[in-house]
Amino acid sequence: MAHTTIKVESSIRDRLAILAAEKNTTIAGLVGEFATHTLTQSERDEQVAKTLEVLHALSGYAPDPEQDRTADDELMRRLGSAA
Q1: Which domain of life does this protein belong to (predicted)?
Q2: Helix, strand, coil: what percent of the chain each, to 5?
Q3: Containing H/E element for 52?
Q4: pLDDT value at position 6?
């Protein structure tokens, strides 16, 4: 397996070392876990599209973009008031 170097500020390296130690892994393991389990924007968009397809198939619900924005705004409002 080929390796590479990623340059970060020493304070970031130190924090990564602490986080890695807490998870009983290395910085490389921590970064690998993050990269493996974090979805890209296109992967998130694909999941949203699939979820909406299933939602529509099961319930007939197919929100338009305005309904989607309104629901997102309401969710953010409620999450903000819960904090």
Answers
A1: Bacteria
A2: 75, 0, 25
A3: helix 41-59
A4: 93
Amino acid at 62: A
| Stated pTM of the model | 0.64
In the numeric block, which tokens belong to residue 17?
């070392």
Domains in the chain, number: 2
CB 14, CB 5: distance < 8 Å: no
Q: Based on the fold, state whether residues 27 and 58 are members of the same structural domain.
A: no
Contacts of residue 61, defined as CB under 8 A and 6 or more positions apart, other chains included, come to 55
Query: 62-71: buried (b, 16+ CB within 10 Å) or exposed (e) per residue?
Result: eeeeeeeeee
CA 45 to chain centre: 11
Residues of the chain with pLDDT under 50: none
